[in-house]
Write a structure and sequence with these properties.
The protein is of the alpha+beta class and 385 residues long. It has a domain of 192 residues: FAD/NAD(P)-binding domain, CATH 3.50.50. The protein has twelve helices and 20 strands. The longest helix has 30 residues. The relative contact order is 0.17.
Length: 385
């Protein structure tokens, strides 16, 4: 179908929403993005953009902006969190991996969307969505009623459109919580993502913004429930106590943290239904994932490209949306499952952790490219071709 002049409303000015907005606007659609916040702010912390996500940004004409915003990753190193000893090194040099601050990625996507003619409206909290009429209808908290030609829900974990399509979801607490923080980096910090593994917990760290900042994400298994929120703050001492048994280098980072956020990690099911009458969801709204494979942003970018391609290549929105879900659901389900498996591997207790680390060390020496090769299905997948 022709997208020229097609009225499209996107709910959510996150990675998925802004990417699909630019992708559709470049194909001639008239796109409006509704964002409930009053501005696009510096939220979150670091992201790893792998080659599968970078391919989409380059196809959207944002490759140079990505290169300016991100740092080329040299390697991923798995370490014994207690001793700091390396367990396995994955060489990433020249493979197209980028370490990016979330705010910088959102900023380049927002600039790209606006340059393509997208209108971004703030303070647009959605109160209700109706899909029973010939066109989707949504009502904002201010009482404004809108009836776009196409409605796209890129509104994240607590998607209003997902709930309208599928009913309320019941996520379950994974008994894991995550802290995130950013601190000034040590001069000369290499562009390496490190995973420090320990019994029942792990910590990921890498530099951002040309090595001026260090990103920290630390995960601990615990039985007590924690709110699923990006905005919940915690006492940095809680984080230090949770990782008190880790290496001096890790403890040194944590000692310098003054401001830390904490959120509970919940497992959300992949939505069984991604689309309805002239409406569709993508990104975290369709397939939320845990953060242990660093693919949330990359899946959102892939979704945005495939959805725009499906709409441009099918005669009706319904056919396009069905093709989109058929193309994306199996891959996204595989990524969600692989991410959950990573969490278990990082948190092994004795004697299994020592045996697993030994196996990784031996495998890394005998076949250094094997571990990364096992992820060719993930990183080598290019939806733009």
């Amino acid at each position: 179908m022709s997208l020229i002049g097609q009225s499209v409303t996107v709910i959510g000015a996150g990675i998925a929403g802004l990417a699909v907005a630019r992708a559709l606007a470049l194909r001639g659609a008239g796109v409006t993005v509704l964002e409930q916040a009053d501005a696009i702010r510096e939220v979150g912390a670091g992201l790893q953009i792998s080659p599968n996500g970078a391919a989409v940004l380059r196809a959207l004409g944002l490759g140079e902006a990505l290169d300016r915003a991100g740092t080329a990753a040299e390697a991923v190193i798995l370490r014994d969190g207690l001793t700091d000893d390396p367990v396995l090194r994955l060489d990433m040099a020249g493979r197209g991996f980028r370490l990016v601050h979330r705010a910088d990625l959102i900023a380049l996507l927002a600039a790209g969307a606006r340059a393509a003619g997208v209108q971004i409206l703030f303070l647009q909290k959605i109160d209700s969505i109706e899909l029973s009429g010939p066109r989707p209808a949504l009502v904002t908290a201010q009482g404004t009623r809108m009836e776009p030609g196409l409605l796209i829900g890129a509104d994240g974990l607590h998607s209003r459109l997902r709930a309208t399509l599928n009913g309320p979801a019941v996520p379950f607490f994974t008994n894991q919580v995550a802290w995130r923080a950013v601190l000034p980096a040590e001069p000369g910090s290499p562009a390496v993502a490190e995973v420090h593994m320990g019994p029942g917990r792990h910590l990921v760290s890498y530099p951002l913004r040309g090595g001026t900042l260090r990103n920290i994400v630390a995960v601990e298994e615990r039985s007590r429930w924690t709110e699923e929120s990006w905005s919940l703050r915690d006492d940095p001492m809680e984080l230090r106590l949770a990782f008190a048994g880790f290496s001096p280098r890790v403890r040194g980072w944590l000692d310098r943290i003054e401001d830390v956020h904490l959120w509970g990690l919940f497992r959300h099911p992949v939505a069984p239904r991604w689309h309805g009458s002239h409406s569709v969801i993508l990104g975290d709204a369709a397939h939320p994932t845990l953060p242990f494979l660093a693919q949330g942003a990359n899946m959102a970018l892939e979704d945005a490209w495939v959805l725009a391609e499906c709409l441009a290549g099918h005669d009706t929105p319904e056919a396009a949306f069905a093709a989109f879900q058929a193309a994306r659901a199996p891959r996204c389900a595989r990524i969600v499952a692989a991410s959950g498996a990573n969490a278990r591997a990082y948190h092994l207790h004795s004697p299994w952790r020592e045996a697993a680390h030994l196996g990784l060390r031996v495998g890394g020496k005998l076949a250094p490219g094997l571990a990364l090769g096992r992820l060719d299905w993930l990183y080598g997948h290019d939806v733009t071709t």
